[in-house]
Design goal:
This protein is an alpha/beta fold. The chain contains 21 helices and 30 strands. The protein binds 5'-O-[(S)-butoxy(hydroxy)phosphoryl]adenosine.
């Protein structure tokens, strides 16, 4: 599969290397941070360190206290007031940088738009007035379900401008997922598009939502962006649904930015946890903006005047929120915003964009890198990638082979790689190299960002100096989630209980090596990471059992060469239902409809029974062990040990297909 890795002697030689990559003298000489003493400085007084970053923003009213910490409840820059959209837009325009490009937008159909800071501000102000006209007040939730179009960041910033809380749902999620996220966040307005483009063809978005929208009593208005120029069939409900362009035309152009409290909510973003119910992760204004401003500048070594930065994530994930929108704009950077897929209209699309736009910094996920490896190094070799000077990775552990390929084939052997570990909950990058300081080891996210305290601990919470265990964070940071929307108890219980009330339980396993470098290994809870996207086993199980033919289901993550992990489902059918290939396909589609295509199980294994404990709990760990062909431990607590043998046989039979 990874045969192409072998066809270049440079990569081959490095494949099993223990080599450490020091920053080059050239990179160091120009780096935003090149003096390692920044770590000691931040460690000596973390609050002063974060405060120095907050000072780079415009505040309408200064804070009186940097941090108010009553674990797990944090308030940052207490008493301060600011407007997040002012800091991302007006500030740069007022400083004479209005004509600077904020986004080079590239549509999937080859259409392009150049969005300057002044242009983005104008759109944001007008749309803020549209939202006001639709009755949106500070603190109200506004849903956003859009493709990667410039209206997406503008809509987010318009919410921030008027103190509304955005709730972005990834465009690949299903109507049912949108419905659930709108219902639980009490959204009254939703912004969507007539359609999204898939390989040149419109795929309806608004029309697909209509049934779900009708069941949402709080939903007063739906604003629809005309992405396709009327090519999609888009029924509009009188009085509720309005067109973006018509509203914009009718709106006043100017909407001054009002200051809001530093702890005013900025957004809620749903992510999967270990139950079937996704968690609405709540972020606020001053601390979050400080955290993403600092990390964006230091980790990506941004030079706003000369860099062209491209984060290839979707705006619907936290990576897009923090490092396409808020961190990038707060720093006045120029970004590429790309709507399409990496292989449309051809497999060189990414490299063509880098060549044409002179991209200097690329931030993408290991899954994408492994896909490029599979397609072959001759594809990127056909383009001029010499503008690149820094590469980033995020979303899942990056295997050393992919790391080395990325460095050699894409980075030409001279770009530092920043493997950035963080989460929706952390809001900002937490463990990462600083590219002008940190020597990197392929596969390690290296060290905590200055001011961040992390440790690996045992079951009992004792710190492991060297070795494996559970990853924890041990000190508040400005971008941290403040709560789970409307569920503070779940916030405390999920993250701040297991290892004590002041220790944040990450949910990842990690190893710390003799140099204090962190190697994040993966989740320890019932969360599956498919291509860097988080899904809960329970969520997929409940989607499966909602099919009338299914009696029971157990879902696990299995290692997968391409996607990191893939979903395997063990399904017990109702006794009257026959196993068939058609039903298999139907079940996979059923999950796609309930959650989204990314949740479609890769494998479904029929099981007449599932292994359970005597108290009736499904033993997922045992299923994982069987599926991965690992030696089975003690199975005597099983209600029916014979089940294990039956399932193991099924898996082997399936593997021979
Ligand atoms: C989980 C968070 C952070 C934005 C995208 C995902 C895994 C993330 C890395 C990395 C190893 C990583 C962890 C984490 N993860 N980055 N560099 N190395 N693992 O955000 O959906 O909140 O998922 O992704 O398991 O807990 P998310």
């Amino acid at each position: 599969m990874e045969g192409n890795l072998q066809d270049g002697p440079d990569v081959e030689a490095l494949m099993h290397t223990e080599e450490v990559f020091e920053p080059s003298d050239d990179f160091k000489a120009q780096a935003n941070f090149s003096d390692p003493s920044v770590y000691e400085r931040a460690e000596a007084d973390p609050q002063a360190w974060w405060e120095s970053w907050a000072h780079k923003l415009d505040w309408a009213k200064p804070w009186n206290t940097v941090l108010d910490w009553d674990a797990p409840w944090a308030k940052w820059f207490v008493g301060g007031e600011l407007n997040v959209s002012h800091n991302c837009l007006d500030r740069h325009v007022l400083a004479g940088r209005g004509e600077k490009v904020a986004y080079h937008w590239i549509g999937e159909d080859g259409d392009t738009r150049t969005i300057t800071y002044a242009g983005l501000l104008a759109t944001t102000e007008r749309f803020a007035n549209v939202l006001k006209g639709l009755g949106v007040k500070p603190g109200d939730t506004v849903g956003i379900y859009l493709p990667m179009v410039p209206e997406a960041p503008a809509a987010m910033l318009a919410c921030a401008r008027i103190g509304a809380v955005h709730n972005v749902v990834f465009g690949g999620f299903s109507a049912e997922a949108v419905r659930e996220r709108m219902a639980t966040s009490h959204a009254q307005v939703l912004i969507t598009a007539d359609a999204t483009l898939r390989r040149g063809e419109p795929l309806p978005m608004k029309a697909s939502l209509d049934d779900a929208l009708d069941t949402l009593p709080d939903m007063r208005h739906v604003v629809v962006v005309d992405r396709t120029g009327g090519k999609a069939d888009t029924p509009m409900t009188e009085g509720r649904d309005v067109w973006w362009h018509e509203q914009m035309e009718a709106a006043e152009p100017s909407c001054p930015a009002e200051p809001f409290d530093s702890e005013h909510p900025l957004f809620v973003l749903y992510t999967s946890g270990s139950t079937a119910k996704p968690k609405g992760i709540q972020h606020t204004s001053g601390g979050y903006l400080t955290g993403v401003t600092a990390t964006y500048s230091a980790v990506f070594d941004i030079k706003p005047e000369t860099d062209v930065y491209w984060c290839a994530a979707d705006i619907g994930w936290v990576t897009g929120h923090s490092y396409i929108v808020y961190g990038a704009l707060a720093n006045g950077a120029t970004s590429v915003l790309y709507e399409g897929a990496p292989d449309y209209p051809h497999k060189g699309r990414f490299w063509e964009i880098i060549q044409n736009y002179g991209v200097t910094i690329l931030y993408t996920a290991p899954t994408a890198i492994r896909t490029f490896i599979k397609w072959g190094r001759e594809i990127p070799a056909g383009y001029d990638l010499s503008s690149l000077r820094l590469l980033g990775s995020v979303g899942e552990p990056i295997n050393p082979r992919a790391w080395l390929w990325y460095r050699e084939v894409i980075g030409g052997g001279h770009c530092p790689i920043v493997d950035t570990w963080w989460q929706t909950e952390t809001g900002q990058i937490m463990i990462t190299p600083l590219p002008g300081i940190t020597a990197t080891k392929p596969g390690s996210a290296t060290r905590p960002f200055p001011g961040v305290s992390a440790a690996v601990v045992t079951h009992n919470g004792e710190i492991v100096e060297e070795g494996g265990g559970f990853l924890t964070l041990r000190r508040p940071w400005p971008g941290m989630a403040r709560t789970i929307y409307m569920d503070p108890d779940r916030f405390q219980e999920t993250y701040w209980t297991r290892f004590g009330p002041e220790v944040y339980d990450v949910g990842d396993a990690a190893r710390i090596d003799e140099d204090g470098y962190f190697w994040v290994l993966g989740r320890t809870d019932d969360v599956i990471n498919v291509s860097g996207h988080r899904l809960s086993t329970m969520e997929v199980e409940s989607a499966l059992v909602s099919h009338k033919g299914v009696a029971e289901a157990a879902v696990i993550g299995q290692s997968d060469e391409q996607t990191g992990q893939a979903i395997t489902a063990f399904v017990t059918l109702e006794s009257s239902v026959e196993q068939s290939d058609e039903l298999l396909a139907e079940l996979r589609e059923h999950v796609a409809e309930k959650i989204g295509k990314l949740a479609r199980p890769k494998r479904i294994i029929w099981s007449d029974e599932l292994p359970k404990t005597r108290s009736g709990k499904i033993m997922r760990r045992l299923l994982r062990d069987i599926a991965e062909g690992r030696e089975l431990g003690d199975v005597t607590t099983l209600r029916d040990p014979a089940v294990v043998g039956m399932i193991a046989e099924r898996i082997q039979a399936g593997d021979e297909d």
